[in-house]
Amino acid sequence: MNGSYYINPIVRRKIDALLQMNACVQANLGTRSKFDMGSRETAEELWWQFLVEIRSLDPEFYQSVASSEEKEMVTRKIYNKRRFRQATADTV
Questions:
Q1: What was the pLDDT predicted at 72?
Q2: In angstroms, what is the C-alpha Rg of the chain?
Q3: What does pTM read for this prediction?
Q4: Model confidence over 12-36: pLDDT tens digits?
Q5: Alpha carbon of 54 to those of 23, 31, 44, 71: distances in Å?
Q6: Among 3, 8, 42, 82, whose Cα sits 20 to 30 Å from the Cα of 31?
Q7: 58 to each of 18, 43, 64, how far by Cα in Å?
Q8: Percentages of the chain per state (helix, strand, coil), in multiples of 5
Q9: Phi and psi at residue 26, in whole multiples of 5°?
Q10: Which domain holds residue 28?
Q11: Integer CA distances (angstroms), 29 to 13, 43, 49, 81, in order
């Protein structure tokens, strides 16, 4: 564990803030509160944007928090699961 997350307190604070925002978004889905994104798709798209930022801050930490499907989506810059799965089904 030599990534920036573990040795740079500024990077750690930034990544922790992104993870905390994502936790808030996920916890408030469907609550109709001011933090409710309105749909799971919107919350997922925001998560992928967070993943892009996490990858730029610490690629090693990104590898540990993103699933293999999320990594592929971020690499291909497709931030919608339905479109991603259609695109990958078309290539198989």
A1: 87
A2: 15
A3: 0.83
A4: 999 999 999 999 999 999 999 988 9
A5: 15, 27, 15, 12
A6: 82
A7: 13, 22, 10
A8: 75, 0, 25
A9: -65, -40
A10: 4-91
A11: 24, 8, 17, 17
